[in-house]
Design brief:
Low-confidence stretches: none
Shape: globular
Radius of gyration: 30 Å
Number of strands: 21
Mean pLDDT: 84
């Protein structure tokens, strides 16, 4: 993956800049936000210069000869089998090692120091398993491999005592990396209808290698019983006969005339399957154009076209997730929300995030002005860009999307407010245009896994995590304000359940709004266990308040099985020993671990402290996600309906019964 990039004199990045991109190979989703003019698109463009020879866009007033773009790559050692592996190790050892750090500290450059700090964070996780390679191009050296003005001489000296040989070795490393990745950049100004043509380079990069191989297979297929009867051989044979006839005719006038292989073609005498394949792609695919609802894509609105680009990229990469491709795809999209109807925004962002997860596992980089992704996106990095008023340089502040809202105190004042406003606007618009859908707005990604497991047979449910109890309530209040103050909401038939845990501190909110005959669009409910019974209560209508979380409201046996499995698979020796001293209560009504209603108890009274170890393990944020994933896996095919699922089905009227009354 690309983990960062050095820029010098590219667009608004004058002087030397280090831009972080992704620090987690499991979650390769990077989102850049900030005002216009801070350099979001320039980051994606600059990488296109390296991969696809994009035209340089220089910083005004700076020397072109000093401009360079050098991406920083983190590459798994197991993926490198090339003949120049030794040279790759030399370069990687330099960037991981002390010599690089000493070089940086002698220069005291801010960007270089930021790079070393970033590298040291990567080093802890990846030094033993990955190569760290910074390599790019400079304007002055054309397409020659370049390691940045601060490191180039050092690295070339390590690659060889003779400059020409060292540069050749560097170029080989660059070529291997360019062959390894396919960088697909979709700028905001690009014509979607052009991008979606099968013969377009962007589409060709998205196509699976097997499509191209299939064309070659057809061309090379031999007729039964014949040794030299492929389409390619027959074409060459017939063309050779034709050329002989032509040469015979023209040589009758003068024997010095003939059509023969040229020096420019390398004295090549015959067509190959690849030659014909490329011409088929060029000539045949333009005969096919993308249609949406039987309309040519060119006739759609700009927003629909933009949506089609993301949809096609998503579906193509999803379809090819289990196939080996020629290159690892990196998808970079400028403002995916551009010209798009607001109701489609969060769907598109969730799809882009999905591309980075599971079996698809692509690297995705985007820029955006739609901040509604903040509460709903869980995996990857958000980078906030802003201009430093003193230096006029772009400053980058990076956040992990898993807990991004926990660090909102570091955001500019408008970011959090705008994120919830954007999401609320999209949600209410989507509900209007998709009346058959039901919604559950919950706190986190762990809750999503549990709820999907419980309600897997209901396809019309959208489950949206928004990063904590506070955001669930804020989003509810925003929608509450909208539906109470706006006429024209009577036609909204979709319903949304806002679901929160019962935390230590009670949250007070306004009553859900009701239309006419007890018709409710949005409903806020709090999880509550009362005498072993799971309830979903109106936070303002009941006085019962016992701390209750989603993990307390599951199938007890399944939850214990998931918890036990995750503990056994972990490296936590204390938790493993503590588990052996616990036993599951077969008559447990809930999946609580704490208190009198707990589903586990110590085998001996002296082991009470071991129960605390189990609880601490289960409440760790990373372990919570692992347990939820295991629970969802174990639940597949489970025909027993969860008690919590029954309550949700009643509230959202999923089985067509009467709606719940308060």
């Amino acid at each position: 993956m690309i983990t960062g990039v050095f820029l010098r004199h590219y667009k608004n990045y004058g002087n030397l800049n280090f831009i972080p991109i992704c620090d987690d190979s499991d979650n390769m989703f990077s989102i850049y936000i900030g005002n216009n003019g801070v350099g979001k698109s320039a980051i994606l463009e600059s990488i296109d210069v390296f991969f696809n020879n994009r035209e340089w866009n220089f910083t005004i007033g700076m020397k072109k000869s000093e401009a360079f773009v050098c991406p920083l790559f983190l590459i798994s050692k197991s993926e490198v089998t090339s003949s120049c592996k030794k040279n790759i190790e030399i370069v990687s050892n330099y960037f991981w090692g002390e010599q690089c750090e000493i070089n940086v500290h002698t220069r005291t450059n801010k960007a270089l120091i930021e790079f070393i700090e970033y590298r040291n964070r990567l080093k802890h996780r990846y030094e033993n398993t990955h190569y760290l390679i910074m390599i790019g191009v400079s304007y002055n050296s054309g397409r020659e491999a370049f390691f940045g003005s601060s490191f180039n001489n050092d690295v070339l000296e390590l690659l060889g005592s003779v400059h020409e040989d060292a540069q050749k070795a560097a170029n080989q490393i660059r070529d291997i990396i360019i062959e390894k990745y396919s960088y697909i950049y979709i700028p905001v100004e690009a014509s979607p209808s052009e991008l979606l043509k099968l013969q377009n380079n962007t589409m060709q990069k998205l196509l699976n290698k097997d499509v191209l191989q299939e064309i070659e297979r057809i061309l090379k297929k031999k007729e039964d019983g014949k040794t030299d009867s492929t389409i390619v051989s027959r074409i060459n044979r017939n063309l050779d006969t034709f050329i002989k006839e032509v040469n015979s005719v023209i040589s009758s006038i003068d024997v010095n005339y003939s059509f023969a292989p040229s020096i420019e073609s390398g004295n090549k005498k015959s067509l190959t399957a690849k030659d014909i394949r490329d011409k088929i792609i060029e000539a045949y695919f333009p005969l096919r154009s993308l249609k949406v609802r039987n309309k040519r894509v060119e006739s759609l609105s700009s927003g629909e076209q933009r949506r089609a680009v993301i949809d096609v990229a998503y579906s193509t990469l999803l379809a090819n997730k289990n196939r080996k491709t020629e290159k690892k795809i990196i998808l970079a999209v400028d403002e995916p929300e551009s010209s798009m109807h607001i109701s489609n925004c969060f769907n598109q962002f969730l799809r882009l995030e999905e591309l980075t997860q599971g079996e698809i596992h692509k690297q995705v980089l985007i820029t955006t002005h739609w901040y509604g992704f903040l509460p709903i996106t869980q995996h990857g990095n958000m980078h906030h860009l802003m201009l430093d008023s003193e230096s006029d340089q772009t400053k980058v502040r990076s956040f992990n999307l898993r807990n991004v809202l926990e660090n909102r105190r570091y955001f500019p004042d408008d970011v959090e407010l705008k994120s919830l406003f954007d999401l609320a606007s999209s949600l209410i618009t989507y509900m209007r245009y998709n009346p058959e859908n039901k919604w559950i707005i919950c706190e986190g990604s762990d809750d999503v896994l549990y709820l999907r497991a419980m309600l897997e047979k209901y396809d019309s449910i959208n489950i949206l995590p928004v990063g904590g109890c506070g955001n669930v309530v804020k989003l509810f209040q925003m929608l509450f304000g909208f539906v109470t103050e706006n006429t024209g909401t009577e036609d909204i038939n979709a319903k949304a359940l806002f679901l929160i845990d019962t935390d230590g501190k009670q949250i007070k909110v306004a009553e859900p709004f009701k239309f006419g005959q007890d018709k409710r669009i949005i409903i806020l409910r709090r999880l509550q266990i009362d005498n072993g019974e799971i309830k979903l209560i109106n936070p303002m209508s009941y006085d019962i308040y016992n701390q209750t979380e989603m993990e307390d409201c599951l199938d007890p046996q399944l939850y214990y099985q998931a918890l036990s499995t995750v503990i056994k698979e972990s490296k936590n020796t204390k938790a493993k020993l503590a588990l052996k001293k616990m036993e599951f209560l077969s008559d447990a009504k809930t999946s609580m671990l704490r208190g009198d209603d707990s589903c586990i108890c110590p085998k001996d009274i002296k082991n009470l402290k071991d129960k605390k170890i189990i609880i601490e393990f289960a409440e760790d944020s990373d372990n919570k996600y692992r347990i939820a994933s295991k629970y969802a896996e174990l639940n597949e095919g489970n025909k027993v309906q969860h008690a919590l699922a029954k309550r949700i089905i009643e509230i959202l009227n999923l089985d067509g019964g009467s709606e719940e009354n308060d």
